[in-house]
Q: What sequence folds into this?
């Protein structure tokens, strides 16, 4: 089973990392519209956060992806302490350079005679002067090269994959030497058994669950570990990136679709027990239903993780806002600060639960959708002329007649 698991880890990891690297989604970059009134193109995590607008800009800065791992940043003093990441662009050939050339958007990056500018976390091709012309809805009119850079979220996805590989490689080695694992293996084994007995078997079925265990375990631990890393000072928001949740949901959709048996498709294209005329109307509804299921998966994960980060950072920002609002008095300011700090700790503890809960829900629904597609229907029962199971009809009669 572990060989299958490692294959699933590799596939999910490469798929989500590529989706993250190539996605340029404006929903994850609210600063493109600069609705806060703060120039967050030069806003850094190390800058002072003293007003509601600056808190909003701070949250936007945290939620979006980045070409840097920022350790400390004070833009007004041009002080940046960060880990630059590789920039990979396709612009009449491959363009490769480090993001340090942008100096956090303050300078123009030149590579092979081409000039690029980092504008609101997006890379645009420009001239030597770094000209950015805004068009409709304040969007730049400059060409945006195809960007599949190694961003902060891509590095996090690779880190999650490495953690999973090391953990389960160690667990696999322990099973070769002893029946009961020790150390971190004692933590992993109950979780693996839980996914198998409480998620895979009840929803996929006793006969077919092993075929999908690798994927289900991979999805569960990938989301859980990524959620936990999002609560660390690394400041990553991997599962709050719509590209990542789309990639994970798309994998569930593809596995469900290509593993489905003929009964699954029969219930979609020619539903038994339904009048032939109504069947024609149900076909498009059922086809849309196959798409709404993975859509619900990706939206639920994305919205819950993003909401948790927004609430947590809003509470932390409220502490600094209350600190600068001396009109309410020093004593009240300290009281508000203590209250919001305690509330932020409480929300963080809840986020630890949510990190596990979202991994569980995504895995459970994925198993449920797969189980619905591969379940073997029993056609040995006698049916009446309208397609209803005779045994079910007789049971109803016994209850109500």
A:
């Amino acid at each position: 089973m572990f060989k299958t698991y490692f294959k699933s880890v590799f596939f999910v990891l490469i798929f989500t990392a590529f989706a993250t690297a190539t996605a340029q989604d404006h929903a994850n970059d609210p600063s493109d519209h600069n609705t806060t009134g703060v120039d967050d193109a030069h806003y850094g995590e190390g800058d002072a956060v003293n007003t509601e607008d600056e808190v909003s800009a701070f949250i936007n800065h945290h939620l979006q992806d980045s070409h840097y791992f920022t350790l400390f940043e004070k833009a007004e003093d041009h002080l940046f302490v960060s880990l630059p990441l590789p920039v990979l662009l396709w612009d009449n050939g491959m363009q490769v350079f480090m993001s340090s050339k942008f100096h956090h958007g303050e300078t123009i990056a030149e590579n092979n005679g081409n000039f690029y500018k980092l504008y609101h976390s997006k890379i645009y091709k420009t001239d030597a002067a770094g000209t950015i012309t805004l068009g409709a809805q304040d969007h730049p009119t400059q060409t945006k090269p195809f960007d599949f850079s190694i961003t902060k979220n891509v590095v996090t996805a690779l880190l999650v994959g490495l953690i999973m590989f090391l953990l389960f490689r160690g667990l696999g080695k322990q099973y070769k030497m002893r029946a009961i694992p020790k150390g971190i293996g004692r933590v992993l084994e109950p979780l693996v058994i839980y996914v198998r007995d409480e998620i895979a078997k009840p929803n996929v079925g006793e006969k077919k669950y092993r075929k999908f265990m690798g994927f289900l375990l991979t999805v569960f631990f990938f989301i859980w570990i990524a959620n936990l890393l999002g609560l660390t000072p690394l400041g990553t928001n991997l599962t709050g990136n719509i590209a990542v949740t789309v990639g994970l949901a798309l994998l569930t959709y593809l596995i469900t679709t290509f593993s489905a048996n003929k009964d699954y498709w029969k219930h979609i294209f020619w539903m038994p027990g339904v009048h032939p005329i109504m069947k024609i109307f149900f076909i498009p509804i059922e086809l849309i239903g196959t798409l709404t299921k993975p859509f619900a998966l990706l939206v639920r994960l994305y919205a819950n993780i993003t909401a948790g980060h927004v609430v947590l950072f809003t509470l932390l920002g409220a502490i600094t806002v209350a600190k600068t609002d001396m009109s309410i008095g020093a004593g009240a300011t300290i009281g508000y600060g203590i209250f919001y700090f305690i509330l932020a700790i409480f929300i963080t503890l809840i986020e630890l639960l949510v990190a596990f809960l979202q991994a569980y829900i995504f895995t459970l629904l994925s198993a449920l959708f797969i189980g619905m597609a591969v379940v073997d229907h029993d056609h040995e029962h006698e049916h009446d002329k309208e397609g209803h199971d005779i045994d079910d009809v007789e049971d109803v009669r016994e209850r109500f007649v």
The beta strands are 68-74, 79-84, 86-90, 94-98, 109-111, 114-119, 122-126, 146-147. The chain has a mean pLDDT of 76. The chain has two domains: 38-150, 154-374. The chain has ten helices and eight strands.
